Amino acid sequence: MYHILICDDERDIVNALKIYLTDANYMLYEAYNGKEALRIVEKEEIHLVLMDIMMPEMDGIEAMIKIREKSNVPIILLTAKSEDTDKVLGLTVGADDYITKPFNPVEVSARVKSQLRRYMQLGAGNQKDQALKCGGIELDDKEKRVLLDGVDVSLTPTEYEILKLLMQHPGQVFSPKEIYQKIWNDLPYGSENTVAVHIRHLREKLEINPAEPRYLKVVWGQGYKMEKGR
Amino acid sequence: MEKKKKLTGSFPAKAAAYFLLAVSAFIVSFCAVVIIVLFEKGYYTSDPMNVFLREAEIYIRTDAYTVRDYLAGKKFEYAKRVCEGKNYEIALLNPEKTAWSNNEGIIWATFDYNRPEVTVTAGDDADLSGWMFCDETITIPLDLSGGSLSINGCQIEEDTRYIFRFYFDPEMKEHDKIAEIYTECCNMQQWKIILPWICGISVIVMLLCFLFLMCGAGHRNNAEGIQRGVFFKVPFDLYAAFYGTIVILLLLLWFEVWSAQIEYVAMFSGFVAMAFAVVSTFFLTEFAVRLKVGGLWTNTVICRTMRFVGRAIRTVWRGVCAMFRGFPLILNTLIAYCGIVIMEFFGVCLFMRSESGLGLVLWLIEKLVLLLIVVYTALMCKRLLKGSEALAEGRQDQTIDTSYMFGDLKVCADHLNSIGQGISKAVEERMKSERMKTELITNVSHDIKTPLTSIINYANLIAKEPSENEEITEYAEVLVRQSGRLKKLLEDLVEASKAASGNVDVDLRPCEVSVILSQAIGEYQQKMEEKRLELIVTQPKEEVSIMADGKHLWRVFDNLLNNICKYAREDSRVYLNVDTRGGSVDIIFRNMSKYALNVDGEELKERFVRGDKSRHMEGNGLGLSIAKSLTELQNGRMEVVTDGDLFKVILGFAKV
């Protein structure tokens, strides 16, 4: 049983989220401003917080800072502020994920699920020695297995090789040409497009929203990289 | 203070001062003349005896010649009587046996030279206490025809110089000319000391009177401030000329009488000086009054004339300037040209025949002046050119320096400057309003997003709800689709306004064109295959890089490729070319439109314009606008060309 706190000053949105997150495994709490959220977090054992930023009394950022003083419970910010600077601020202050309004309900539930799995099942120190890890992605080269938030992901051999290459060098940008040379062991003669297609497929399998990837990032005009694990 | 004012203002005091001034001027001049005469006579430089001797000599010499003549005629008796009743005696001395101290060497004398009291006591240190003498060497021109002359047993040679010695009696018992001279000399001895004192005191008095009069000039007791005299209206230079004439006349008069008797000269000089002093003081008083009142310079004929001439010249110049300003520029230029030609023509005519180099020099000077004018004009034109260039390139903040400009050039520069100012003001205002619009849109979009979230969510819930009524499901789907569009529109709107106002961070880095192309293909391959579009990419073999911000560049590609997927005719080919001719990299997107394109390319780039001008399709018409703004933010250019159903977008970036 996971305890989820939904905090938004808009009751309709809270209700809608409650409907979408209806699951036998979820126990939902609701709050309508930052102070209420804090009170509930202190009183109950909460496993995940979904929080709006612009709220009366105490805003989401402030509430999040207060929560972070005591707990490392995953917090997903859910806000109408879509500027890059707002996202960066939220994530640096302590949010684990950031969803902009108007949101896709499916995406919200997927992200909630992902955060819960990571928090509950893959606690700190749970990492295998050989496994390459990046955020919620785990790559075990011995078993040739890739886990996303603890769930197996089935990849083609090429996709697996590309992912391995990128995960071995997190943060490093590989151009399509380099990737082609390393994976296919061949000189690329205009066949870099294949790489791009494979990457897209990888992204579709690993990311909740392939247009806004969290892990496998496109550096436009230069290549691809794996985000350094947060 | 009160007293002084009273004194300087009182008429009797002034009259007295004038009188004193006149008298002292007379005295000064008189004394000065006398002192000069005395100085010339040697009263100040040599001892009194010498002066007396010099004065007396002229009389004594006459007697010496008489004695000589008598002696030559052997009329000794007559010779003896020459000095009777006079204060002096004459002796003839042998030049070889002369001695100062005694009577030795005397050949003959008008007195009994063996008398003891006649012993000479004086020489250089003579006073008039004892007898004294002076020597005079005189040739005795004897015409001793055959015979010889012997005086007192001494043979007199023919044509030999003998010494005549004069002995004076210091008591001056007799009343003769010598006694007179002697008395005068003695008097002068006293006067020569007194006179300079008198002269000096008089000078001081004169100066004091003069100062007093100057201070008092224009003051009158019964009136306040500076009073103007009767002659005040007379121009000062006329007045000065009058004064100068008088002074010159006085000087001429003075020179006229200079050669006459000393007393007369002194008296006359005194009167001239008196007149001079009075006239000068009078003139200077007037001068002082004018100085005190002010306007000394303006009340002169010269000044008035110059003013008049100046005014006339200015009027004429203004008239000429106005006339030329009235003419059009071309006419002015022609007039100037004709002037130069006529000048040169006359020059040629005048100096063609002459051999002198003057013509050539003048011609060179003229050419030099002309060169300066031409260079000046060229420089000014260059300034104008630079200014207009800056305007054309959009640098409105660069103003043209109008210093040293004149005429039409200045007018032109001023016009250009005001155009620049107008443009920059307009641009600034436009940027400001764009920014405000962006802020407004961003803020409003935040407020719209919250209710929109609820709408989308509940529409989704309705759509998912199993319903027996199929129509409700259908309606719910419309709701979901349209609210989704609204969401996209909102996001695009914010982005478009941000991009248009430049309110976006741009991080330009070298981007490889081939990489972004292959990435784009990777992203869109599937989508195009679904639409049955065949993507044909051609690019140069060598690596080409452009300066761009990858994120924004992708956004541009995304929008363009999205458009293609939306609007390209199905089962057609889409061309993606890279052209690197001429220093810039052109990325060209070409596709056949599904619908007839009834708007031109330029219009398509504007916000909310779509090719079909109807709004029944997906998309909101912001894509091209965003793409264009973002391209321009990355210093690139975007062109949209439509040709029939061919839709072509060209992205141009500078090659790295």
Give an overview in words.
- The complex is a heterodimer of chains A (230) and B (656).
- Chain A is 40% helix and 20% strand.
- In chain A, helix 2 packs parallel to helix 3 (60-70) and helix 7 packs across helix 8.
- The model of chain A has no long low-confidence stretch (mean pLDDT 85).
- Chain A is of the alpha/beta class.
- Chain A has two domains: 2-120, Rossmann fold (3-Layer(aba) Sandwich); 132-226, Arc Repressor Mutant, subunit A, CATH 1.10.10.10.
- Among the domains of chain B are: 2-39 and 188-293, no CATH class; 48-174; 506-654, Histidine kinase-like ATPase, C-terminal domain (Heat Shock Protein 90, 2-Layer Sandwich), CATH 3.30.565.
- Helices cover 59% and strands 12% of the residues of chain B.
- Chain B has helices spanning 2-9, 11-41, 48-72, 76-81, 177-216, 236-256, 262-293, 301-326, 329-351, 358-392, 407-464, 470-501, 513-530, 550-567, 601-604, 623-633; strands spanning 88-93, 106-109, 132-140, 149-151, 154-156, 160-168, 509-512, 534-538, 545-548, 573-579, 584-592, 637-643, 646-654.
- The longest helix of chain B is centred in the middle third of the chain and has 58 residues, at 407-464.
- Chain B is rod-shaped, with a radius of gyration of 62 Å.
- The chains are: A alpha/beta (230), B alpha+beta (656).
- The interface between A and B is large, with 33 and 39 residues.
